Amino acid sequence: MSKKIAVLTSGGDAPGMNACVRAVIRSGIKSGCDMYVIYDGYKGLVEGKIEQVDRNFVSDIINRGGTILRTARLPEFKEDAIQKMAVKQLSDYGIDSLIVIGGDGTYRGAAELAKKGVHTVGIPGTIDNDIASTEYTIGFDTCCNTICECVDKIRDTTTSHQRCTFIEVMGNKCGDLALYSGVAEGVEMIITPDDPIEDEKVFEKLKSLKGGKKKHSLVIVSEKIYPNIFEFVKKVTEKTGIETRAEILGHLQRGGSPTSKDRIEATRFGIAAVQAILDGESSICLGLHNGKIRRINIDEALAMKRPENHELLEAIKLVNR
Ligand code: ATP
Questions:
Q1: Centroid of chain to Cα 25
Q2: Element (H, E) at 267
């Protein structure tokens, strides 16, 4: 009897999730498995939104943003009774293995299902790059590029008006999106949870820049640093005398066609997840380390602490004023 494997996407959507689903479905079929998709994450699993698919189901999705399997959040999935409903749905289809693409919360759900006998493998999919057990998450590169496109445009108007603009980007509690896009844009200041800057120091730095040749400045800030960035830039204007505006990039950061890097890493992760299932693994997640995909126990992965990215932060100080 052939092995039956299902795949779902969960948590926030990320560009490259479709490329990953495609790799899971196609490599599974090529290995002789029956492949299933589940719509709407764990919510859809509990509701039985399960469908067997063939290789054509994932045609022409490698370049598409979002997730064709859609995603949802189901806080009640922490409850034992709800998890049992999910296990029952899978067993009704004869499915014993589940690949989940998402973040830490999604991994927690997979670990719970593994305790109830489902073979689970997690793949890191989130724009935030905030998963401690991997150096890279699917969607991060596309999101950085999207932020850069936006900042390029904001730069044009900021320069023309000789203003200062604060740009707030996503990242959850992780500063990587701000740091990498800030380095790629050569902005005057990058403010992240790893490198928060006191308000007075922000004012001083901007005032010191004002005296130079460059009459505009760009600052990239991680979300959740300032409770209200619009109020904060009013204070910046008052304290520095520089006309300062704020832009929150918001959900446009999640969208768009995945970059080649995201398509390739997503494809590698998808193939590796199916292989892990075929090797009899369960309750593991995949992580990228020095370019290689590693298997890590989910409980161990969730206990890991994200290393702070001081190296890049320090290096950039040699380039910036
Ligand atoms: P992102 O980083 O994009 O937010 P995520 O996977 O961390 O992705 P969450 O909303 O935290 O997103 O989790 C996704 C889903 O996983 C939740 O809606 C819930 O159904 C399930 N989940 C989260 N935490 C747990 C838990 N402790 N036990 C069981 N299931 C969980």
A1: 21
A2: helix 260-278
Give me the domain span that covers residue 17.
4-139+258-303
Question: Are residues 56 and 186 located together in one domain of the fold?
Answer: no
Residues 6+ apart with CB under 8 A from 312: 179, 180, 183
CB 5, CB 99: distance < 8 Å: yes
Atom of ligand 1 nearest to the CA of 107: 6
For the question of residue 92 being annotated catalytic, the response is no
DSSP, res 241: -
**C-beta atoms surrounding 61 within 10 Å:** 17
Task: Identify the three-state secondary structure at position 163.
Answer: coil
| pLDDT, tens digit, 9 for 90 and up, residues 99-148 | 999 999 999 999 999 999 999 999 999 999 999 999 999 999 999 999 99
Domain-embedded: residue 20: yes
Within a domain: 52: yes
Closest CA to 6 of 18, 31, 30, 24: 24
pLDDT in tens, 62-93: 999 999 999 999 999 999 999 999 999 999 99
Task: Considering the candidates 13, 40, 128, 195, report the single residue annotated as catalytic.
Answer: 128
Residues with Cβ within 8 Å of 213's Cβ and at least 6 positions away in sequence, in order, are none
Q: What is the total count of domains within the chain?
A: 2
Atom of ligand 1 nearest to the CA of 12: 3
Prediction pTM value: 0.96
| Main-chain phi, psi angles of 124, to 5 degrees | -75, 110
Q: Which residues line ligand 1 (CB under 6 A)?
A: 10-12, 42, 73-75, 77-78, 102-106, 108-109, 112, 126, 128
179 and 244 co-located in one domain: yes
